[in-house]
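step=encode ok
step=design start
structure_in=
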């Protein structure tokens, strides 16, 4: 979807990494290793995005740590585009809103870290969720967004306990639905 608009695959992957979850911070070598690309090709794109002020670069010893520039005027728009690219808007619209008493839905795991692994880990927090309908809607959404969705339903109390007990699992999740929205 973004390929005709942004010709560099590395640039697309960097935008997904940093704009799908603005809490993401990463170093050049870490990104190159994650993407399976040379440090030079990643460096070129990091420099372009930094020069455009879309990314912040902060010296950290002998390395530079990169993160999304949340103060950039285009930040909200790019974030929405990335969300649509990943299909997160479709998940909220086609799955969560039809399930029953859902308090919130969060994306955790690789996608929350900005890694397009092909599998979206979705945590649905609520009571009385129709599991048969969830399976049906998940299958439809997977075809629509061309990604595997791995849903996990949790009661409110179980979610709060898990969030407190497993900080890594719920570190910087992406909120795709909330009754407060």
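sequence_out=
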């Amino acid at each position: 979807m973004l390929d005709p608009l942004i010709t560099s695959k590395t640039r697309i992957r960097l935008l997904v990494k940093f704009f799908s979850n603005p809490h993401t911070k990463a170093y050049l070598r870490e990104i190159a290793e994650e993407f399976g690309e040379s440090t030079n090709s990643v460096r070129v794109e990091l420099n372009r995005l930094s020069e455009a002020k879309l990314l912040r670069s902060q010296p950290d010893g002998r390395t530079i740590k990169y993160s999304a520039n949340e103060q950039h005027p285009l930040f909200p728009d790019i974030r929405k585009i990335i969300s649509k690219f990943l299909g997160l808007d479709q998940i909220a619209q086609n799955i969560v809103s039809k399930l029953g008493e859902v308090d919130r839905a969060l994306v955790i795991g690789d996608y929350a870290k900005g890694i397009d692994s092909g599998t979206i880990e979705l945590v649905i927090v609520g009571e009385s969720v129709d599991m048969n309908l969830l399976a049906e809607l998940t299958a439809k959404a997977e075809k629509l967004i061309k990604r595997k969705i791995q849903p996990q339903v949790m009661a409110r109390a179980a979610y709060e306990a898990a969030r407190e007990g497993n900080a890594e699992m719920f570190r910087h999740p992406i909120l795709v639905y909330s009754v407060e929205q």
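step=design ok
step=annotate ok -> The mean pLDDT is 85.
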